[in-house]
């Protein structure tokens, strides 16, 4: 048998699972061994690792923040009553608003300056700086330049899982 005939008899199988993809080619036995090896080695590791990934989809963020953050022609704004917000809540929500504004093309950057946060939250400079330091220490915000901060993915996840449900309870929404 010539090599062209052997190539025609090769089996080729593509496997795609989430972000993982593999192509197996060869004899049916070789392909079978490759696929079984893929499933036994890669999938358990992938499933475990997938449970460690912290992420927030834009659609989830928008859905869960309805009535708390709104989009106006001027940009993204807070709609939650200030009396229901702690200084930390207000800072996180303003940073989230900046993040959303950048994601939907209403702002060039996702970060907010400390000076702007003082004005937006009506807080004292020392208090805002202290809250930003605390939030940075726990990984919910990151400093991206001199006096510029943005919310992290962990911060977004925590906002949605911890703070938004509490805010909804305070304002009597579900």
- Shape estimate: elongated
CATH class of the largest domain: Mainly Alpha
**Sheet with the most strands?**
3 strands, antiparallel
- Number-wise, the strands total 7
Order the strands across the largest sheet as they lie in space. 5-7-6
Short synopsis of the structure:
By secondary structure, this protein is an alpha+beta fold. It has helices at 3-8, 28-50, 58-64, 87-103, 114-121, 125-137, 153-170, and strands at 11-17, 20-26, 69-72, 75-78, 112-113, 141-145, 148-151.
Keywords, separated by commas or semicolons:
single chain, 174 residues, alpha+beta, Arc Repressor Mutant, subunit A, 2 domains, three-stranded antiparallel beta sheet, two-stranded antiparallel sheet, 53% helix
Question: How would you describe this protein?
Answer:
The chain has 174 residues and is α+β, with helices and mostly antiparallel strands. The chain folds into two domains: 3-50; 58-170, Arc Repressor Mutant, subunit A (Orthogonal Bundle), CATH 1.10.10. The chain is built from seven helices and seven strands, in the order αββααββαβααββα. A three-stranded antiparallel beta sheet has the order 5-7-6. A two-stranded antiparallel sheet has the order 1-2. The protein is elongated. The chain starts with a helix and ends with a helix.
């Amino acid at each position: 048998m010539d090599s062209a005939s052997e190539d025609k008899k090769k089996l080729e199988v593509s496997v795609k699972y989430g972000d993982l993809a593999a192509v197996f080619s060869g004899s049916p036995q070789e392909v079978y061994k490759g696929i079984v090896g893929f499933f036994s080695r890669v999938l358990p590791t992938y499933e475990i690792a997938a449970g460690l990934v912290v992420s927030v989809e834009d659609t989830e963020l928008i859905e869960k923040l309805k009535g708390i953050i709104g989009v106006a022609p001027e940009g993204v704004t807070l709609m939650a009553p200030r009396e229901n917000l702690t200084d930390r809540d207000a800072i996180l929500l303003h940073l989230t608003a900046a993040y959303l504004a950048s994601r939907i093309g209403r702002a060039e950057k996702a970060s907010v300056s400390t000076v702007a946060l003082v004005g937006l939250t009506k807080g004292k400079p020392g208090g805002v700086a202290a809250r930003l330091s605390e939030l940075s220490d726990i990984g919910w915000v990151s400093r991206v330049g001199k006096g510029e901060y943005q919310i992290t993915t962990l911060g977004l996840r925590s906002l949605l899982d911890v703070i938004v449900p509490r805010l909804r309870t305070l304002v009597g929404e579900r």
